[in-house]
Amino acid sequence: MKNATILKYVFLFIVVIALTASWAYAEDQDSYSEPHKAIQAVDKDLQLILAYKLGDESLYFFIKDKTNLGATKVRKGIFGWKSGMFTWGPFDPDRDYENLQGIQGHEEGLVYGLIRNGDERVVTVDDQEASMVNLSMLSPSVVKEYQLEGLYIWYFKSDTHEQVKLLRKDTREIIESLDL
């Protein structure tokens, strides 16, 4: 009877080790040394735009098929970087982006959009200033190919979003205000 109990525990131990090894192998195969490599493993044709890389989290915006602007967060786990959910919406390179149009959302309260002349304008969400990414930081050939001259991505992360405003940077005059 004692040998049967020992064999049950040995068998259970072997099963737990096998399941753990199988999980670790799968996690390792889905993890990458750099955040952008995790995204490119999902879709290698995206034009990536890094917004930030802070500790174990990175936020990337991307242009998909030259007609969609999207976002994804990448997180670092014990085996490396893994991409999160991808969201995207229409991006029209022929629009002027002088106003707040095409505001998009992403997981965990992230809102974002495109505006022209972000060096002269400010976007606020609930009276807090949004972060800006100047798209001219991309290579000149990408800026020209995707018609990104003078465009900025603004983004803001918060649990609630009630109002978005576009302001003149120097005078803080409201150009446009939208309720969400």
Automatic annotation (TrEMBL):
Recite the UniProt keywords alphabetically.
Aminoacyl-tRNA synthetase, Ligase, Signal
GO terms (molecular function) for this protein are:
aminoacyl-tRNA ligase activity
Where does the secretion signal sit in this chain? 1-26
Does Aminoacyl-tRNA synthetase appear among the keywords?
Answer: yes
- Write down the superkingdom of origin: Bacteria
Name of protein: Aspartyl-tRNA synthetase
